[in-house]
């Protein structure tokens, strides 16, 4: 498997140039070319990935990396060995890496962080024969789809667990950026907490970073010092869970199962399962049936618990059977389609009705969410 780290791109380019000069234009077909063919000798379909963090972050990027590996396992005609990790979200770096993947022959490219949206659109204009899929953004084009998962559903379920567990009625939430994706998750989580514990509050601290283990851990410590006895997070490292474990408190992880990093703290984690989506999407593109037209607000794809793209990691031993049964009951309500998390009545922080009784928020309203529900302590700034 070919692994490319953004920080090593310049050094790698130099080595390749030297190798080309040494071997000339003729000679044997390279090992890379041999690997790009399937058992029938046909050229494989090359699929590239752009990652915000390292593949071993135990978080967001690790979940996408598991999906990439699943894609290669399930579709033998796919070569998905081109991926670049630790790519900054600034336009110049992101566009350069995405362009590099195109020039390497990748016909499908997944860009897996919100900040890659505009760079993806810009590169896509230059390569109309390549299909691009951007995760969590809201811009599409004829050859650009936007995909995400209804993580707020899994967040809600994890909120039930947290609400049942807290004794201080203060739950800390270490959040990344104040954008709709994160706000929606905080709100979904809080609705779950308050369903089982109306007296509980969810305190939010912003780090303004997706992955900074030290900053995330420091934010969790501040919340613990403020009385929180459960720590939740929208961070790409297990730092907040480790901070909770260090002082004998509990936590809710995120992205992937974080129990290995903090087994005495992590009760469960809302997790991503990108593999089936990647397989279905690549199949559709290969068969000519893929359509990038937005179908869920501004998104081409927005699967949830029913589709299996989001879910909960296994429960820790500290979670009671009663709580597990309640979570399963609520999960089945959502999967069955009879109810969804953001169905009224729901109040905002001021105690005013934001969603009337029986009314359900539209997909676009959810994707543009910029307010907190009752029970959240924090500001959007």
TrEMBL record:
Lineage: superkingdom: Bacteria
Extent of the signal sequence: 1-27
GO cellular component, one term: plasma membrane
Keywords: Signal
Name of this chain's protein: Basic membrane protein A
Gene3D superfamilies attached to this UniProt entry: 3.40.50.2300
Coiled coil: none
Pfam families (UniProt xref): Bmp
Residue ranges of every copy of the ABC transporter substrate-binding protein PnrA-like domain listed in the record: 45-335
Annotated PANTHER family: ABC TRANSPORTER SUBSTRATE-BINDING PROTEIN (PTHR43208)
């Amino acid at each position: 498997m070919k692994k490319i780290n953004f920080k090593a791109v310049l050094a790698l380019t130099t080595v390749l140039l030297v190798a080309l000069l040494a071997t000339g234009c003729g000679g044997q077909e390279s090992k890379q070319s041999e690997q790009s063919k399937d058992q029938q000798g046909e050229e494989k379909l090359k699929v590239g990935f752009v990652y915000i963090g390292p593949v071993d972050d135990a978080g967001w990027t690790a979940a996408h990396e598991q999906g990439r590996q699943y894609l290669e396992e399930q579709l033998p005609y796919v070569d998905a060995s081109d991926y670049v990790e630790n790519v900054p979200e600034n336009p110049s770096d992101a566009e350069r890496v995405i362009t590099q993947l195109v020039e390497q022959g990748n016909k499908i490219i997944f860009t897996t962080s919100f900040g890659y949206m505009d760079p993806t659109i810009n590169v896509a204009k230059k390569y109309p024969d390549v299909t691009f899929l951007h995760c969590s953004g809201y811009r599409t084009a004829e050859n650009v789809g936007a995909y995400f998962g209804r993580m707020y559903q899994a967040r809600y379920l994890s909120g039930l667990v947290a609400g049942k567990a807290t004794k201080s009625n203060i739950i800390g939430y270490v959040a990344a950026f104040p954008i709709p994706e994160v706000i929606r998750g905080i709100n979904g989580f809080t609705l779950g907490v308050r369903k089982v514990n109306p007296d509980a509050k969810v305190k939010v601290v912003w780090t303004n970073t997706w992955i900074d283990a030290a900053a995330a851990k420091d934010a969790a410590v501040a919340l613990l010092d403020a009385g929180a006895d459960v720590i939740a997070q929208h961070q790409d490292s297990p730092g907040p869970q480790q901070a909770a474990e260090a002082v004998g408190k509990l936590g809710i992880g995120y992205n992937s199962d974080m129990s290995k990093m903090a087994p005495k703290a992590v009760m469960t984690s809302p997790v991503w399962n990108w593999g089936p989506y990647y397989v279905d999407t690549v199949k559709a593109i290969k068969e000519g049936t893929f359509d990038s037209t937005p179908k869920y607000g501004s998104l081409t794809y927005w699967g949830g618990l029913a589709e299996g793209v989001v879910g909960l990691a296994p429960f820790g031993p500290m979670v009671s059977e009663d709580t597990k049964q309640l979570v399963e009951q609520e999960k089945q309500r959502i999967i069955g389609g009879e109810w969804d998390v953001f169905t009224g009545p729901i109040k905002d922080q001021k105690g005013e009705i934001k969603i009337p009784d029986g009314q359900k928020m539209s997909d676009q309203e959810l994707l543009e969410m910029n307010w907190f529900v009752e029970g959240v302590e924090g500001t959007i700034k």
